[in-house]
Amino acid sequence: xxxxxxxxxxxxxxxxxxxxxxxxxxxxxxxxxxxxxxxxxxxxxxxxxxxxxxxxxxxxxxxxxxxxxxxxxxxxxxxxxxxxxxxxxxxxxxxxxxxxxxxxxxxxxxxxxxxxxxxxxxxxxxxxxxxxxxxxxxxxxxxxxxxxxxxxxxxxxxxxxxxxxxxxxxxxxxxxxxxxxxxxxxxxxxxxxxxxxxxxxxxxxxxxxxxxxxxxxxxxxxxxxxxxxxxxxxxxxxxxxxxxxxxxxxxxxxxxxxxxxxxxxxxxxxxxxxxxxxxxxx
Length: 282
Prior knowledge:
four-stranded antiparallel beta sheet; single chain; mainly beta; seven-stranded mixed beta sheet; 2 helices; disordered N terminus
């Protein structure tokens, strides 16, 4: 089933940075090429919030990710050199492929806990975008060695100018399984009440009728709370925390993820409950 996107016309407007900070941000963001995002069907895909433009989201089999990276040299003008009217231009070398996480992903643990005596956890891996076919070939091999298959990339060349992310779910003694992969287009920055999410069972290999107790999603970095509503009318509220906030089993959290333009959240319903809806509420 294709991802279902709803648009909320009452989305709050979010102001962006100004001055020199914005100028540098735009320079950095302009360094990566856009990419069309594909999608494969999966019944666990749920509704997203208002979209600035249509986004696509898939679980365990589609889409693509572009990580904006800086290239070339940035000139920092207006810094005095000790002489009247003088300025200094500081050359910033482009980051290496290793620094851009092309050959090894950035991994962030989004949530963890214990359910019916078994530990569970959710992680996200983000790979940087290769700049050329040489980098892409090495990344393709590194992904293969990790058992990760990039979205819509059949040969290494397909990875040039694109990044990838993979969300994995672990449960008990079973092997960690990939549950989602998708994309972030640098030109499609989430803001206001934008939300992309998926609901799925907590246990791997669950039957088709199993309750979808686990909700994973992306929101704008400015989102402060996300409310997950369950089929019995109860709710779980995820709150925004800083990047260094400890992962624990007691709280539903929204946290920034290095390499991602969006913040990520995870909600888990209690036993016997299932997903009904989710939205940004603050």
